[in-house]
Amino acid sequence: MRLRILPVACLAFAFAYTPPARAVSAADARTQSFKLQSEGMRLYKEGKYKDATGAFQQVVNLNLNSFLAFYYLGICLNADRRYGEAIEPLKIALDLQPDYVQAHLALGDAYLKQGDTGEARAEYLRALELQPNYAAAFDGLGRLLETTGQDDQAEQQYRKSLEINVAFADGYTHLGDLYLRRSRPDDAIQLFLKAITVKPDFSSAYTRLGVAYGRVKQYDDAIAAIRKAQMLTPEDPEPYVSLAKIYLELQSFRRCEAQIQAALALDHDHPGAHLILSDLKRAQEDFGAAVEVLEGLYERGIEDALMRRAVGDGLKRARLDAARYAALKTAIERTPAAPQDLVGLARFMSAQGAHHRAADLLLQEARLVETAGASAAQPAAVPIGPTPSGEPLASPLSAPQARFEAGVELLAARVYPQAVDLFEDLAGTPPAETGDARPGQPAPELRAAALFNLGVARAALRLDEQAIQAFTTYIAGSPADARAYLYLGNACLRLGRKEEARVAYGSFLERAEPGPEVSQIQRILETIGRDAGGPGAGKAP
Fold this sequence. Notes:
Number of strands: 0
Largest sheet: none
CATH class of the domain at 336-461: Mainly Alpha
CATH architecture of the domain at 336-461: Alpha Horseshoe
Mean pLDDT: 87
CATH topology of the domain at 336-461: Serine Threonine Protein Phosphatase 5, Tetratricopeptide repeat
Strand content: under 5%
Radius of gyration: 29 Å
Shape: globular
Low-confidence stretches: 1-21, 374-392, 533-538
Helix content: over 70%
């Protein structure tokens, strides 16, 4: 047989690795190479990319003509986010076997992650020249178009890949991600479920499904889906990062940090883990740590162009917010504190996800206003922003306004009993005869809003009978508000009162603008119609 001559690039790459400690026979080299390659493929499938990379590095030292070893080395480096290092072995694989379409795809992915869209496009097109109906190449073009802001064209490419291969799970997840970014979570959920149907052990689809459930506030379903992903691929940090985001939104800071630390134990430089850790530190009022977390990662370097940009943007925001927080904190420590400074810091902390802290500040402002004898209701505070002198820009609130905003923050912090107390007090205040708020009394509009939120807080505590009372009373005074019918229908459905739920949902659909909630309620009504005889049909959002 004619020996194949290795390209110069291949030799140069192979010599970059440490040669075997001793000379081995050709037969021993083949045996050892086969064992290492099998072990590397097993490690790759288990998500142990660093170990798999080490195995394939040994294989290419032993067998310089194994295109498959160079290919797997490249995709292991891709999976380990070492995109620059992945390019050379993938090129060598293609020198050894130019028509290997999977290697063209992997090389295109490495270029795309580094932000080189021109080379990425060329590799995806080469794959299509070799295999015109290669679904993964159309999917690659879709991801490329999405990174350049061409969402409509990206969707066309994703759909083309799925027309070619209806069992292409990656295509469903990538199109679902696009829908998530475009605020179409219900459509994304259906795509992720489809991906799981065609590939039941697809960990990434379960993770994305959990993220989508989180967007529509179905937190139990979100946590269950991500836990499934963790079980399928315990070495993958991504499900831990996604679950940390859910816990942060649920204001469960301890659980959030536990998931972040689990992700960092698997991959110390995972950008998503650092971003969510920075968000957690901000919510905990540790802005110095929030900046430090991102500074260290950014200085170490990030090969993924999109993540590098995201971390860079996050670092800029963290630095600006750290300076803003220091100015606001200094302002409220003055003696005596000014009500508008407390409002300014409360709204700033709310934007950082520290809702309980924001509620405490607003209640402090309410007490301060009452003590100072403020009488007339004040206008709502304007958005916070720096003035030329760096002072906070906000207006004081009347005591009822401050308590109402505190109740909203407690709802966001999931401290429902205290929120119920605040809204009951505001909603139960007798209305003024003149229609104008007397000193210390909520205006009629504020009282009505408190009544609505009282229903929301009671429903969150599963006090559905009391929630129904609050929503029914609210609707009597505000019959055009579609949201009230939606929440009323949810409470009725949880109690198994399907006919009342059907009527409430019908009233919601008559008044609501098109959107995800409309589609969801239409599906619930279909479920109620199919299962009219059984209790508790459907699932209230």
